Amino acid sequence: MNYEVLSVVFLFAVVALGFWRKCNIGILAVGFSLIIGKIGGMSNSQILGGFDAKLFITLVGVTFLFGIAQSNGTLELIAKRAVGLAGNRTYLVPVILFLVTGLLSAIGPGNIPVGALMTVVAVTIAVEMGENPLLFALAAKVAANGFTITPLAPAGVLTMSLSETAGYTDIIIPVMLNVMLWAVIMMVGFSIHYKIYRIKPGAVAVGGAVSEKKPVTRDQWITIVGMCVMVYLVMFRRLDVGLTSFFVAAVLILLGVAKEKQALAKIPWGTLLLICGVGVLMNVVIEMGGIDLISEALLAIMTPATAAPIIAFISSILSFFSSTTGVVIPTMVPTIGTIVDSLGTGSAGFISLTSVMISSSLSSAFSPASTGGGLILAAYMAASNSENKEQEQQKLFGRLFMIAIACVIANIILSAVGVYGIIK
User: Fold this and answer.
1) Where would you find the membrane-spanning parts of this chain (predicted)?
2) Where are the domains of the chain?
3) 42: confidence class by pLDDT, cuts 50, 70, 90
4) 387/206: higher pLDDT
């Protein structure tokens, strides 16, 4: 029996079934790992070997810590205080939203929780100002996505782990900078298209929720200090990000800055199950030779010159129907490792193609069929005062879909001209 082909069929069948039935792909991945693993003659321990306990601890620790910060209003406070700094220079509001969202995403929570929070904040601010909510929402979402590949955020931690397994270490910083470059380029494009310079001058959200300066509470001050301590210990003392996050979170809970149940409810358990569940299935596929088969198929149409745009196109298509962190990164990073080894482009090639893969996948995330685009659509409609909401929703759905396609095309062009090979 051709186990390589069978494992790849199972992989894509799980993704397709999850998308079709609107259920968590991670649950399906773990369940179907048993079937395909046993067909391939793998033991229970070999099948479960794909569950990365260190990754799970890291994801839970980081998201729990920032769940505390979200549940007691610290993250929203930081965002609104920062936006208020714009004053009469209202054209700076989308830029400030971009920078603040990027910072919050980079220091730990990642793109999903921060994107959810800041998309709502951005749309609320835009409505209060009487401006186009789409520009503000896109500014927040592109920053949440573009600044999530760091050593502290879940997507960055996952990328590091898979890259090290593929034999490539110390690649996270250049990949991080490349993806941030993508975010900046997209933000410039959005700003030009939506004419950021035409935002009418005046005080930001006069009399609204944004300009209302509530005092910083004791719990929020302690939480801010705790987040700073976590970043310092991880970045400068080289402590494990997951264990450090649990330590700081434990101290914050003992100090009573938030209710434990509320903070636990903020952890995106579905996302964590998705990431770790797909990891179990991917381990089975790798063991059965499925990744080698995919890599060989791609190599048949690739050269060092065409590898980047082909990877960009494939990653974009995958992301239209699945999660970047949960599916695209776990599937593509091992494939890229094999491709780079065959092409002989070394560490620089791995950095470039990984950057291309992530940025291309994130470009598709503006589609309303994805989590990011869906959040924008939901926040926009919740804040809309339109009498004909159904017609407006359909119009926005189509607009977001076209934005995603435009971003994908732009990123394939950027990949083809070698933009992601600059930072190595």
Assistant:
1) 6-35, 55-75, 95-127, 134-159, 171-192, 241-258, 270-291, 297-321, 333-353, 396-423
2) 3-421
3) very high
4) 387
